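ok so I'm stuck.
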Amino acid sequence: MPHGAFLLAAALAGLTLLGSSCRLYKLERQLDPVSAEFLSQVRYIITSQERKIYLELPQAERQNFIEEFWQRRDPDPETADNEFKLEYLGRIDRANEMFRGEGRAGWLTDRGRIYILFGPPLDRIRNPSSYELSARCGEVWYYGDFPVVFVDAYCTGEFRLVTYDLSWLRDRNLAYMHELNQAQARSMNTFRSEKSLFDFSWSLKKTSVEETRIEALLILEIPYSVIWFKSVADRLETTLDCELSLKDAEKKTAWEHKDSLALSLPESELKDKKNAKHKWEIPLVVDKGLDRLAKGKNTLHIRLINRTGNEELRKVMDF
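replied:
not stuck anymore, here's the structure
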């Protein structure tokens, strides 16, 4: 690739990432208080993929996501209690009690974050004279022989984490760690080793806008790695269903559309495409209810169904 073309491709890739980040930031700002509280509460353990899916869900679908979020992390689904959830929320409460006085809730401080993620240390030394600190006030927490250092530079009670490489803690299953850490490790290993969460990206390009008619092209990009297939003879097959509804400012449906896509390919081709995405383009024509749509903010709702595996996902965007 010529040098100039490479720079252009890199720049376009950067713009794509920036655009996605800005879009998710905007969606987060629009969350209702209950949805925003959950996202804040799980900030230390939610994955980037889970966060993206949660932000793109319609409000009515988020409660199901929350229930499944905790279920994926339940170390023993056979018991009535979810030990992981109880321990995580319990650590938040204890962090709020232990780390007051920094101008924010204790669980949002550096010490609170480490306490929640790694549990109570074996030893906690305040203002250690035997440890080199850049300030007179500080704490050293020991997990085994590994020190985690916090410094209060002006002795005002505001501690900052100065141990930046915590990979030693993440890489070792220490015996004294609580169930939270063990359950989190198991859930993350399962999450990564199995098929990824069903997800897709979508965009809308309006091709013609007139008083009596709107034409557009809906573009869906679905990673092959999230699609369930069934084996039929020597091929892998499935069908995706797409249901669309356009709602006006009063949340009343002004337009609906349904479409289906059959996928069939040999297993060898699927292996080659494990990091690729399937692009599905759906032409849209809206020629009814335009008077209602012209009155205010409209939203386009999508429901994508993978018939194999019975998976589905809903999303919404401004129209």
